[in-house]
Design brief:
With 171 residues, the chain is of the alpha+beta class. The protein is 57% helix and 13% strand.
């Protein structure tokens, strides 16, 4: 939506509260922004509800509305998790669960590498017999944060440098 000028936070507020996008105020936009980023960075309904003092059902609906609006975001996140899991190898570290920790490296399109390791699973996964696991929100978060803070920063510096070189005689 960036290229079309549509504000993702206004759209998500509009969907969450069923009001026209044009009627979303700046204050409302600001309030929903944390929810939008929570989904983008891989958070779930439970953590969103706890962190933002919202009802879990509202958060589930918000996340569904987000992925209904941006289905490729969900597909991309799922592909990240799949890629990390597919590259998983034992690293020789024995965890308290009695299982060996596994590690995987994900390489982003900008060639930035992210190292992920399994850890002791949360209780709800242990109840299903999964003692160790990767942390999907972390897998979804790191490439987004890395691109936003490191890659875009370097691109902007390059653009600024090229502009400064073109105009160096004007200083």
């Amino acid at each position: 939506d960036l290229s079309s000028g549509i504000d993702i936070h206004r759209v998500m507020y509009s969907k969450a509260y069923n009001i026209p996008v044009e009627q979303v105020t700046d204050t409302q936009r600001k309030g929903i922004k944390a929810c939008t980023f929570h989904v983008i960075y891989g958070g779930g309904a439970g953590s969103m509800a706890a962190r933002m003092d919202l009802e879990v059902e509202f958060c589930k609906g918000f996340i569904k509305a987000f992925y209904d609006r941006y289905p490729m975001a969900k597909q991309w996140q799922n592909n990240l998790v799949t890629a990390v899991e597919a590259g998983s190898r034992s690293n020789g570290v024995l965890l308290e669960t009695g299982q060996y920790q596994e590690s995987s490296i994900y390489k982003s399109i900008s060639s930035r590498q992210y190292d992920f390791s399994t850890q002791e699973s949360p209780e709800f996964m242990k109840d299903r017999g999964i003692l160790t696991s990767y942390n999907p929100p972390t897998i979804k978060n790191y490439p987004v944060q890395g691109f936003a803070t490191a890659d875009i920063h370097m691109i902007a510096e390059g653009m600024l440098f090229r502009e400064a070189i073109k105009n160096r005689d004007k200083f």
